[in-house]
Amino acid sequence: MSGKAYRSFVFSTVVLISVAFCLLVAISPARAQSMSSEQSTGYPKPEAVGFHHAALVYADDQLDERAVLPLFNRVDNTGKLIPRASMFDAAVLLRFTINGKQTDYGATTLSDWQTLINQWFSTGGPIDTFEKAAEQADLAAQNAGTPQQSRRSIIVMMPWMNPSVNSFGQVNGSDRDLSSAQDRQAVAQWFANTVSQRFSQKRYAHLALWGLYRMREDVPPYEQHLIASDAQGVHNSGLKYLFIPYYKGLGWQSWKEYGFDVAVMQPSYAFRSPLDGGEVNASRLQETAVAAQKYGLGVELEFRGCSRLATEQVMAMQYLASGSTYGYQDGVSAAFLGEGFGSCGITTSSNPSQRSVYDALADYVSGKRIPSPDVDIKAVEAKRSVGQSDNQRMYVAREVDLKKFNSIRIDFAEHQQYWQGEVQLQVQTANGGWKQLAWATRPRGDSLADNIQGVVVSFDNTRVNPGKQTIRLILTTAQRSPLSKPPIVRMVGDRSLDPVTQNGLANAYTVVESGKPKPASYPDKTSHMLHDGEISTAGWSSGRNVGWNSNPGKAVINIDLGSVHRVGAVKVYTQGGSDAAVNWPLNPVATFSNTPTLMDSGTGKSPLLASWPFSTPHVIAKHAPVGGESLPTVPGISCLTATEITCTNQDGYIEATGTPVEARYINIGFSTNSWAMLSELQVVDSAGNPIDFSYRLARAPGDLDNYSDDGLRLTDGRYTDDFAWKEISGWPANEAVALRFDAAEPIDVNTISVYTLNAGSYGIVAPTTFAAQVKIAGQWVDVQGRREQTSFGSGGVRLDIADLRYHQVTAVRILLPGDRAGWAWTMISEVKVE
Questions:
Q1: Which residues, if any, are the signal sequence (predicted)?
Q2: Which residue of 19, 359, 384, 712 pairs with 598 in a disulfide if CB–CB is 3.0 to 4.6 A?
Q3: Where do the CATH 3.20.20.80 domains begin and end in the chain?
Q4: What one-character DSSP code corresponds to residue 21?
């Protein structure tokens, strides 16, 4: 899924020994050392391109001047212009739809493009608004005796030319076919000429037309032989052409060959982090910088919403600080400003932390260097101790205040050779021993990253003592890891994630007994479609597949073999190739345990026995795109022999193998950044014999991510005090809801807590109370205890039933009364047992 397509949705380690025996690993790389040693093209230079920092501005037929002015010139917290404080020198004008059609993936035609031009160039329309805002900024500079900024560059979006459109409309006397290179060039030239003419007629004194922007953020295979014609049409009109691909989107490194004048790459961190259900962390910023510099692209700044959440503010500062550290601040860049920094309230916010993001952005654009919000951890590698395994390395850090953050991120420089293993975080106790705080497994690296990657260990910082502590991180290398030593470049305390709590229900499977989600497309209709022997050989649309949408997130399939077996291999039949945004599962892994384990990280000790990465896909069948008969093909070549250009609907399988593991449970996990379609799961023993099993899905398949969802969202240990929509489950506040949590193993229950929200601006109200039951020896027992309510953060509320004494509990049930107003919602981020 493209960056902006998703963005549109988010709108609405041993006692410490002498340093003589240690190796310092907490490196803060200097800018000159931060890039790959390979020959690098460098970031695009502003003086050569014609602008430095471009703000992305979204508008239909109207645009409020107050939304633009704070982007062209810095304002104080009353909205007043600050003299001598110019900001963005360029703006990209975009919109997501025209006449109900998507501009990045839809099939727009001539009438839609004409509507776009007429609305944007109308009197008082968006481009007029740009002129008025620039005029005000320049007038403020003049009154302050400061030279006016040169004309702001305006870049206008050109909708994607969908090759399936065979009748675009009459351009220069001919109906144009967008699968024809010649016709596409004519359309692009007509659009560029028209935009230029309309712009010239306006006689703007404070704006200059730079060129056009390709709205689609990748170049799909079937369009790669056409795209240069688009650029030629733009250039024939004397304009330039801008490309802003999502992180390593198709064609990103070939932007020059395609005729673009400049390209800027999205890191895709802000919208694919755990805050949105994804797995991308801040190491992606340096990784993007390395790739962008090597291939001559700039790096885009990405801001979430209005930077209202504390996590969003930290994330914003990570982007800016990385720009200063890795140099992309000095190159051409673009900025996605969430809900619109000029209009969302950030400039006038009474919250200093929120307002500070705008001020930091203004400083950044002016050239000031921005410090990192990450906390540097100066760890040293300890000399091998008695009893330490050959595949373990221990890193010790003293004087660490664990109250300042809840996660430690370890960044590796791997260069396509991934370290695989497990990380344990421990804190030294008063008697010199060590207490385990958390763990994280790393079965594989991110297949999209080639250089810098990070692993994050999150812990419950309410369970550590105040003041500075001695900690150690134990990194245990997996048996088949391509790298025997973890190539650490830094360790930092990362504050960009919501807090975690140690939960007795960790890995408990949530069952929504009432308040179930609405049915969605591509469901597991029989609850055993993935183990019915039916393997798809007709592509993703065969009707034999279970599918997960492309929103950021992780799909989890928990397999129960019924008893301990010696497992030799796990195979998943799946689809890919890119047709209809269906692609192979991203970063798939199989983990093994003897208790149900839905997560690959957690607090306390790890229950995992082993972790296997899956192979790259084995293609077993190729098909033409579904509904793509009009796409350009190579005459006389069938899908039996063709390349991905024409046969992008593919069947195949991925397989995980390793040293046979004695285990009962297998967890298959993979990320989604496009649609994932699966048709069958197979498990065999060490002799190759099939093993029967049952399974559960810990993220509901379908085209929607519902607030109500079976799985692990409510027992993943992470909670929030605000509307982080991917971390919460919810129901209409007047709807009675029953939730059952099947514990991974029998537990003691002393307190049951429900983490909920009061967020009136979103129509969210906390329930006044809840009831609970526990299951003991197969019987449900009503819970009776002391009631407590605690507020935390900006809108968090924790409801507790305390002073309980239940043992050998196998399940917990939470009953929400549904006694609030029907217009409101009840939202929960965690259900916890102590």
A1: 1-32
A2: 712
A3: 51-366
A4: G
By C-alpha distance, which of 339, 248, 338 is closest to 297? Answer: 248
Q: Please report, as a single letter, which amino acid is at residue 211.
A: G
- 2 vs 658, residue with greater confidence: 658
Strands 421-428 and 434-442: antiparallel
Q: How far is CA 641 from CA 586, 646, 647, in A?
A: 26, 10, 9
Distances 607 to 600, 602, 795 between C-alpha atoms, Å: 10, 9, 34
State whether CATH 2.60.120.260 applies to domain 519-697.
Answer: yes
Average pLDDT value for the chain: 91
Note the pLDDT of residue 637: 59
CATH of domain 714-833: 2.60.120.1190
Sorting pLDDT into bands at 50, 70 and 90, what band is 636?
low
The full DSSP string for 455-522 is: EEEE--GGGS-SS-EEEEEEEEEPTT-S-SS--EEEEEEE-SS--B---TTTTPEEEEEESPPPP-SS
Amino acid letter, 10: V
Please give the CATH topology (third level) of the domain spanning 51-366. TIM Barrel (3.20.20)
> How is domain 375-494 classified at the architecture level of CATH?
Sandwich (2.60)
Give the total residue count for the chain: 834
Question: What's the CA gap between 128 and 121, in Å, rounded?
Answer: 7
List residues bridging with 97 in a β-sheet: 102
Over 50: is that where the pLDDT of 778 sits? Answer: yes
Closest CA to 674 of 590, 579, 571: 579
pLDDT digits (tens, 9 = 90+) for 657-712: 999 999 999 999 999 989 999 999 999 999 999 999 999 999 889 988 778 777 88
In a 13 Å sphere around the CA of 243, the CA atoms on its Cβ side amount to 30
CATH 2.60.120.260 domain residues, the chain? 375-494, 519-697
Q: Name the token pair of 192.
A: 């560029």
112's enclosing H/E stretch is helix 110-120
Beta bridge partners of 555: 670
Q: Within the chain, which residue ranges are assigned CATH 2.60.120.1190? A: 714-833
Q: Which residues contact 339 (CB under 8 A, 6 or more apart)?
A: 11, 305, 306
Question: How far is residue 740's CA from residue 813's CA, in Å, rounded to a whole number?
Answer: 4
State the SS3 of 22-46.
CEECCCCCCHHHCCCCCCCCCCCCH
- CA dist 724 and 79 (Å) reads 28
User: What DSSP state is assigned to residue 571?
Assistant: E
With residue 131 as reference, give the H or E element that holds it: helix 126-143
- Residue 111 CA to residue 62 CA, distance in Å, equals 19
pLDDT in tens, 119-143: 999 999 999 999 999 999 999 888 8
Question: Is the distance from CB of 340 to CB of 133 less than 8 angstroms?
Answer: no
Please give the Cα distance from 157 to 168 (Å, whole number): 18
CB 833 within 8 Å of CB 503: yes
Neighbours of 167 (CB within 10 A): 11
φ, ψ dihedrals at 461, nearest 5°: -80, 0
- Residue 437 structure tokens: 């705080």
426 burial class (0-12, 13-18, 19+ CB within 10 angstroms)? buried
Of 514-518, 567-571, 670-674, minimum mean pLDDT range: 514-518
Read off the tokens for 338: 């969430």
The residue type found at 833 is V
> Does the pLDDT value for residue 430 go beyond 90?
yes
Q: Which residues contact 227 (CB under 8 A, 6 or more apart)?
A: 219, 251, 258, 259
pLDDT tens for 579-628 read 888 999 999 999 999 999 999 999 999 999 999 999 999 999 988 888 75
Cα(437)–Cα(459) distance, integer angstroms? 6
pLDDT level of residue 25 (50, 70, 90 thresholds): very low
- Residue percentage of the chain with pLDDT more than 90: 80
Strand order in the sheet with 452-458: 375-376, 488-494, 407-413, 452-458
Q: What is the mean pLDDT of residues 28-32?
A: 35
Specify whether the CB–CB gap between 335 and 54 falls below 8 A.
yes
